[in-house]
Amino acid sequence: MRNPFVEIAQNLNESKRVVATNHPNHQVDSVYAELKEKLDDNTLQVMLYGAYNAGKSTLINALIGQEKATVNDIPTTDTVDYYDWNGYRLLDTPGVNAPIDHEQTTIEQIKRTQVMLFVIREGDQDSKDLYQRLFEMIKLNKKIFIVLNHQLTNDSDKVTAYQKIIQILCHKASEYGVSNESIQQIKVLSMNVKTALTGRLKDNHPQLLERSGYSEFIEVFDDWLKSTDNQDNQLSGIKSAVDELWYKPVINQMTSGDNTVRDELLTNLRNNKNMLVNRQRSLVVEARNMISHELMLIKSDISNCVQSTSDQAQLDSQLQRMIDPIGDKLETWVSQRLGEVNALLNIEVSARLQQSLGSNNTAYIDKAVKGLGNMATPDNIKKVLVQGRAFKIPGLKGRWEKTLGKWAGKGAIAVQVATALWDVYSEGKKQDEQNVQERQAAVSLYQIVDDICLAAKRDYGNVAEQVITEILDAQICALDNEITEVIAKENQTQQAFQQVLDYQSQLNLIGY
Ligand SMILES: Nc1nc2c(ncn2[C@@H]2O[C@H](COP(=O)(O)OP(=O)(O)O)[C@@H](O)[C@H]2O)c(=O)[nH]1
Ligand SMILES: [Mg+2]
């Protein structure tokens, strides 16, 4: 034999882990304890509901026959007070349209209670938001008993007031999409609550109780409570409380705005990555152009040097002096360009950071953004790489220093080329002097200079390409890791969300 209350307890236990990790405000333990307690406690709770000043507290006092509940013209409490009465529990709430924190107390209590004693003050009965709340409750399948609290003496006025409220209920039903059957289940009675209280306090003064409408009310209300207080209602009450307090907050949390932050983060990470890939390509081309340009500027110097030098060692050192500064310039140039790329990366990411700080940012977004933020650098590329280490870019340690080493000696290769060619050239020059006919055989000066420049251009170009590629590859790889992590987290969230939905529908299926 299945016991649905045991099944609900199981449902709570099984879902606890996934609910706990996604429940807002980390209140899971207290909510869990509260729901478990509710499962064990089968006292029917009746929540007094209505505008403040409607006469809720006065009605409670009339019911318990004592002035225990605080009656006040101004809303004074933001707590829910409990009064035991006839084996039921009456809950006095601050009411609708009370100050905002009082109203919140009422809203929280609604989630926990199935049975409502709705008090409407005569004269208030066409207030629009009162009905909005009433119909919200009808839609949540709450059991509702309406007391129209009036001070009318004339019988025909009483009838008119009563009819008016019935008319409004039927009229609004279609507006709120509620069936006529649901409306018919609502009990409506009118009563002068204050007179009823006076009668109760005066030793149950028969005329006062009769005249106020209390006598009729208490008979109908008692029957209504008895019919309401059954296992089916108890079960649907606890199920609804579990849904409201356990699943809905988690589902709301998981479907709230966070998604857009995550989507934007992904877009941003991908944009940054594309930017890096594009810059990587264009920087290599720009670097080679820059080297060509610099070499062109010293072409005639090289030519003069080759022509005027008669000693090989002298040629070496002179060429070295001309070509080495290009390496220095290139190093500065690449540093600056890479710095600019990182500054671009930083601008976009810090905009992202500002945005996500404004919203409900989760830890992983925080981490991703901070991680990227750390890659930001002033104008010194070395700092990027030092911080890149903090960002755990694998193998980045010392990479810059190592790559920098590659600049050195590049000029030397060009010089070696020059030396080899110069040998032939000077040989040819000697022959040339001796034999004008053999002039054509000699390597032309033009060719030597050109070959020197080509060698320098190729070697410097390669090393620039290597530096740009390696460094930006490391950053592209870091972005790729972030993208993978965000997507993995997203999948994880999706799975958790599905689990919560599954547990929620399991709960819905529980019954006798
Ligand atoms: N004249 C009159 N005053 C009432 C009636 N019911 C409540 N009150 C007064 O309205 C004020 C608020 O009543 P209370 O029961 O505290 O309303 P609650 O805010 O709904 O709990 C008190 O001053 C009551 O004396 C009524 O039927 N007639
Ligand atoms: Mg009150």
UniProtKB/TrEMBL annotation:
Gene3D superfamilies: P-loop containing nucleotide triphosphate hydrolases. InterPro entries: GTP-bd (IPR006073), P-loop_NTPase (IPR027417). Signal peptide: none annotated. Residues 45-149 form the G domain. PANTHER family: TRNA MODIFICATION GTPASE GTPBP3 (PTHR42714), TRNA MODIFICATION GTPASE GTPBP3, MITOCHONDRIAL (PTHR42714:SF2). This is 50S ribosome-binding GTPase.
